[in-house]
Amino acid sequence: MNWDRVDWALIGEATIDTLLMTGWSLLWTVLIGLPLGVYLYLTSERQLLENRLVYQVLSLIVNVLRSVPFLILLIVLIPFTRFIMGSALGVSGAIPPLVVGAAPFFARLVENVLREIDPGINEACNAMGANSRQTVMWALLPEATTGIISAVVVTAIMLISYSAMSGVIGGGGLGDVAIRFGYQRYQTEVMIVTVVVLIVMVQLVQMLGDRLVVKFNRK
Fold it and tell me: What angle do CA 158, 163, 169 make, to 5 degrees?
């Protein structure tokens, strides 16, 4: 192998692009997915805002978006991405499909985390006269903090892998470098470096998440 063929400046720039894609996508995924997951939980059976129709509609939308392979989602959302971002290429062009792909997944994780909370907490809040908003803000979310942090970590790792796939349509980042140089130009060294960098990023995210879970563990 000829490691001199590796453009380290390009790898560094691609790494920054991947971090930007993952960071912005994760932010919007949490902002959209957290309230969606909470609402899914609240409208489900035997919960504070039980509404079977609303729950089934939201659940169907979440399941449909989760079931579409991300590569297909990237292609399908190109017109939408161009409309809201002005381009379907680069870092900005990768963010909308990343959010659309990850937000439903995160919402379902949040719903499952909330379902694991002791039902007695809801009953205690009702006995004290708390409304649904107060119950969520003062009891459910604080109690579910560690579970939500774990869900964020899982989602962040998924977004890293999704951001690499966005390179197929010119989404930028390490995936784009791996495809253009490692695959199309048969530069195995570049492919190896991009894979190693992605693995390191995933490990760092997991380590940070584990520390946060230990720090905020209420049990």
Answer: 140
Number of separate helices (H) and strands (E) present in the chain: 11, 0
Q: Which two tokens stand for residue 32?
A: 């959209």
Judging by beta carbons within 10 Å of its beta carbon (0-12, 13-18, 19+), is residue 154 exposed, middle or buried? middle
Contacts of 186 (CB under 8 A, 6+ apart): none
Q: Where are the domains of the chain?
A: 3-216
E strand spans, 69-161 = none
Assigned CATH for 3-216: 1.10.3720.10
- One digit per residue, the tens of pLDDT, for the chain of length 219 reads 666 777 888 899 999 999 999 999 999 999 999 999 999 999 998 888 889 999 999 999 999 988 888 888 888 888 988 888 887 778 888 899 999 999 999 999 999 999 988 888 877 887 887 788 888 888 889 889 999 999 999 999 999 988 888 877 777 788 888 888 877 777 888 889 999 999 999 999 999 999 998 888 755
